[in-house]
Amino acid sequence: MKQGIRVSTPSRLCLFGEHLDYLGLEVIAVAINLRFSAKITARDDSLIKIRIRDSSIDTLNVENTDGRYDTYEFDIAKPIPYENNRDYLKSTVNVLLRAGYPLTGADIQMDSEIPIGKGMCSSSTMIVVLTKALLESIGHADAENPEKIARLAFDAEVTEFGEPGGMMDHYTSAIGSLVNLSFPSGETEVYPLSGKLGGRFILFDSLQQKDTTRVLGNAKTPALEAIAALSEYGITSVRDFTDDVNMPLLDRLDADHKRVLSAAVDNYRILLEAKKLLSADCIDDAAIGKLISRHHANLRDGLQISTPRIEEILNTALACGALGGKINGSGGGGCGYVYAREEDCTKIMKAIENLGYPTKMLMQDTGVRKEQ
C-alpha cells in the first residue's frame, strides 16, 4: 500500500423529505458529481497524519490552486481526545478503533469539490471518504460494504457527539445514484429507484454560511414536541396524518407547533407522490419540478429556513423556465438547486450568475468508490 490508495465519495441533493429523516420518515435523494477524495499511504509507525483542503476555501467552483491545506496528526496507539464537538477526523478513527478495526499508521491527503458549510454534506462526505480510505488501507472486507461505511460515518458524526442530524447524507453518499431511504426503528432501509430523470439539476451557492446544528435543532424539536402533544389522541408519527382523518387534530396545537408539524405532514405526502412518479418508466419532469417547489414552500413558510437571497435566486430561475427548485440541506443559507429542462439550463445559469452567485450543472453519480 506504499504507492497509496485513492478513494472518493459524492455529495447529494435531497429531492424530497428534507427535515423528515430525523422524524423516522423517508427521504428521496440523489448522489451528484461533486466529490470528496482521499489518498491514503501506509506508514511504519502508529501516527495518522492528515492534510485536508483548507476550510476557508468554501465556495462553489473555487479550486485549491494555491495548494492550501489544514494539517492534523494523532497517534492511534494512545487515547485520542476531542477538542470540540465537531472533531470528526478524530471521531472517525475512534469509532473504527472501538469497533475493532485494526487500523495502522497512515498519511492521508483529502481534497474536495464540495462547498463547505453550504448544505452539501461536506462534513458527512469527509467522514464517509475517510472511513472508506482507512478500511481500504487495512484490506478489510467492509471497505466494499457501502451501507456499513454509511453507518460507521453516521456514528462518527452524529452518535458520537449527540447531534441532531439524520442518516440521509451518509447513506446517499456511500450508496450513490437515486435512492429512497427509510429509517424504521433507527435503522436504514435502502430502496434504489429505477426511474430516469430527464431534466438537469443546477446547483447554486447563495454565498451565505449556515449553522447546521442550530437550524436542525430549531426544526426538529418543535416537530417532536407537536407529535408528543398529540400522543393522547393516538398520534405517534407524521404517518398518522397520511390521510385526512386526523388532520383536525392539528388545530389543537399552538400556532408555532401547528406550523412546523403541518409542513412535515405535507412534505411527507409530497414524498409519497414523488416516489410513485420516480418509479415510473417515463418520468413527468414538470410534475417533479412542481413537487420540488411545493416542498420548498413548506420549508420556507413552515420551518422558516429559507432566506431572502435564496428566494431571489429561486424566483429568478423560475422566471427563466426552471421547473422547480428548493434549498438543499438543513437551510438557513448555503446552496440550493433548480430542476430544469436541458435546453433551458444555460439561460437559467446565466441569470443566476448575473445576480452574483456561482452555479454548476450536475449529473447523477455513483457512491463511495476506490479509484483506478
Please give a handful of descriptors for the protein shown.
372 residues; alpha+beta; globular; 2 domains; Ribosomal Protein S5, domain 2; Alpha-Beta Plaits; 9 helices; 8-stranded mixed β-sheet; 34% helix; 4-stranded antiparallel β-sheet; 12 strands; single chain
> How do the SSEs run, as a string of H and E?
EEEEHEHHHEEEHHHHEEHEE
Corresponding CATH architecture of the largest domain: 2-Layer Sandwich
Distance between the termini: 14 Å
Q: Taking Cα atoms only, what radius of gyration do you get, to the nearest Å? A: 21 Å
* Global shape: globular
Helix content: 25-40%
**What would you call the structural class?**
alpha+beta
Low-pLDDT ranges: none
The biggest beta sheet is recorded as: 8 strands, mixed
Helix segment count? Answer: 9
Total DSSP E strands: 12
The CATH topology of the largest domain is Ribosomal Protein S5, domain 2
- In terms of DSSP E residues, the strand content is 15-25%
CATH classification class of the largest domain: Alpha Beta
Structural domains: how many: 2
Q: What is the averaged pLDDT score? A: 93
Structure description:
- The chain is of the alpha+beta class and 372 residues long.
- The chain has 2 domains: 5-194, Ribosomal Protein S5, domain 2 (2-Layer Sandwich); 200-362, GHMP kinase, C-terminal domain (Alpha-Beta Plaits).
- The chain is 34% helix and 22% strand.
- It contains 9 helices and 12 strands.
- The protein has helices spanning 88-98, 122-137, 146-157, 168-175, 212-229, 255-278, 285-301, 308-319, 345-354, and strands at 5-16, 27-42, 47-53, 69-75, 106-112, 178-182, 189-192, 200-205, 324-327, 335-340, 359-362, 369-370.
- The strands form 2 sheets. Strands 1, 2, 3, 4, 5, 6, 7 and 12 form an 8-stranded mixed sheet that branches. It has a 4-stranded antiparallel sheet with strand order 9-10-8-11.
- Strand 9 (324-327) and strand 10 (335-340) form a beta hairpin.
- Helix 1 packs across helix 3 (146-157).
- The longest helix is centred in the C-terminal third of the chain and has 24 residues, at 255-278.
- The protein is globular.
- The mean pLDDT is 93.
